[in-house]
Amino acid sequence: MNPVQAIIQRNIRKYLRSKSRVFGTLIMSIFMVVMFSFLMKSAMKGIDAPMNYLIAGVVIMSVFQTSINNSSDILTDIASGYLKEVLVAPVSRTQIAAGQIISSAIISTIQGLVTLIAGLFLGLHVTVIQIILLVCIMFISAVSFSAIGLFLAVVSRNSPSFQTMSSMITMPLTFVSGAYIPTTIMPAFLMPVVYLNPLTYTTSAFRYVALHDTTMTQAELVAQGMAFKLGNFIVTPAMGLGITILIGAFFLWLCVKKFDHADFSSIKVSKGRPGGGPGR
Questions:
Q1: Of 14, 15, 12, 40, the residue nearest 25 (C-alpha)
Q2: How many Å apart are CA 14 and CA 280, to the nearest integer?
Q3: Which of 12, 76, 109, 196 gives the lowest tally of CB atoms within 10 Å of its CB?
Q4: Which residues lie closer than 8 Å to 268 by C-beta, 6 or more apart?
Q5: What is the helix (H) or strand (E) element at residue 228, kind and residue range?
């Protein structure tokens, strides 16, 4: 069996065996869909299909956070000795990194799909074609975010540092991406951060497909926070997806380089890490 495929299958089986982790993350995602769908609906005045607008943001955010958090599993695998056994075999660290990233992306996409299905019962209206396109965007985004997460995991070198670092990054990026709060109502001093946030462009592309209004002009897209005007240049949702792919490719290259030269012998995992001990 291909080493990448073997790592993917192993990580997915490990995830599915952790029932508390599966149900905990899914329940939290569904809770976020319900909460923001009702609490933020009044803030969506002037936006067509407000439930699609809101739920799309929650779905892509669940993909983002799951992708980042899943990357900490590599620290547990290293500290438990699992990867030491793998490294004895003729498997490159590049293949190990690719397997970790893709498996994390698959898990995140599945969670995003479940959240999307939950949204259908709360007023989300999408066609089968839209669902297929949304799943594709979820997977592309999950690969990018998983690459970022893996890079953070290898750089942080232990789970407490990873949790602190990931929280410092995910929380600000979440709230200035437009997923929960429209970027159109954010103060002007935050806009430079919004434009530099990769999650902003992922959210705009995902939301554009969820709304599926091809008649909207660029000015209308800007007014609804699905396109961004930088001087005389407008970043459309399609460009936003391209930016997501480029950022993902960059971090994939960066984390593979870091992963390929990292010394894993000194990496430690906190015994108090949520979710129990290391899985094999």
A1: 15
A2: 7
A3: 196
A4: 79, 157, 158
A5: strand 228-230
